[in-house]
Amino acid sequence: MGETYIARSTAIAARMIGGEMMIMSAVDSTFFTLNEVGTLIWQSADGQTPLSEIVSQRICEDFDVTPEEAQRDAEQFVAELSQHDILLVSDQPMAGATGSAPPTP
Amino acid sequence: MSLLSEMNEKALALGIPLSVHLDLTYRCNERCIHCYLDHDDHGEMTTAEIEDVLTQLAEAGVFFLTFSGGEVLLRRDFFQLVEYARRRLFNLKIKTNGVMIGGKEARRLRELGVEQVQLSVYSHRPEVHDAITKLPGSLNRTVEAIRRLKSYGLKVTIANVLMTANSFDNAGVIALADELGAFYTVDPTVTPKIDGSLSPLALRIPGHELHRVFRDPQLVPNVEEFCAPPPSPGEDVLDGYPCSAGHTACYISPYGDVFPCVQFPLPTGNLRRQRFLDIWQGSPQMAEVRSIRAKDLDTCPSCAHLGTCTRCPGLAYMEGNMRGPSTADCEKSLQRTGIPAASMTAGRLQRQPALVQIQLLA
Prior knowledge:
- The complex is a heterodimer.
- By secondary structure, chain A is α+β, with helices and mostly antiparallel strands.
- Helix content of chain A is 36%, strand content 28%.
- In chain A, the strands form 2 sheets. Chain A has a 3-stranded antiparallel sheet. In chain A, strands 2-3-4 form a 3-stranded antiparallel sheet.
- In chain A, helix 2 packs across helix 3.
- The longest helix of chain A is centred in the last third of the chain and has 17 residues, at 67-83.
- Chain B is α/β, with parallel strands linked by helices.
- Chains A and B meet through strand 2, strand 3 and strand 4 of A and helix 1 and helix 2 of B.
């Protein structure tokens, strides 16, 4: 199976508030808050790093979770956010597809 | 509790300014009869200054940002500032009269991911709307702008301020909003000018008109509940704070002055001399605003309406006492429920309020 690449959409508003990322889609005004793992995936979504690498090198390193479980949860998370155009998904690296991650107050 | 309410609670607990209203200019191509602003340019912030402010706001945690004025499109750098703000991932709302929004501008706002555009429509009748804005043809131009914005898929809200000149036109504006696919919001409050002048108050709709507005099912989803006698305020109400002004929200003028709210012209600092967070976290004036709880107010703790009142601390401040009643809201409570506010029985409303003169820091 091929790799999945994810990039942050620029059609969103986002800010880190008290350790949680709050995100609103400018497309349908859906409002999300991401937990710590979701925030890590979102911040890592640079369009260049494969999702499998984000999971193995950032999530499994920092959280007590099996690679299979983490990969499954990450794919589900990506599918949900991509439905609201918050994450862009491709089977190839996406050059310049993403805006900068928001600063943390 | 909704996710948004949860984030508001979190921002309040952490002292984060979740919402900022930034007026880019006070210049305007309309001269609305009720407007609270002076339209001369007294030295607006430059592009670079505003971009620096936006960077500071993003770092402070601001999420909801409103660009307003004046007419924002009179700034030649307007789209540069919108682009800068969107690159910093603000949820951006634009308030405009729309008369300078053609197809190119509407498309650009959509491309830049502006969340919402709000335009004022005073009447569905051109002779009434244009007489309020003092710009011939303005209703037609505003409506055309709404059509363009909608054609590019933008979320549009029509704001309908009610005053003596248009108090019976809300049904017509609602029908127009429906036809255009726009949201509708109504506000029956005309405020003093930001320099303290009372002149716009003569345009406020009289009490019996407020009585009608509050019972209009097109404006109030549940009239019976909305107009019911207020329940006795509990301890949570007495310990509560009046609104988000200075707590999770603030206002910035085109000259860099920071206030708790656009309707609360208490100077707290200036961004040409101070960092935003130094003002937000260190201003004694902000600290004073934040310290006030309902139980600390002068007349209101004994008022039956305390728990349901829309008391505006900024309007109270402009009447001379930020801890006092806001008489416009006392009148609203009376017209809503038929029960006089405590300030009325204490005879306060018979006195002419002494407006404070606004002393800007700049």
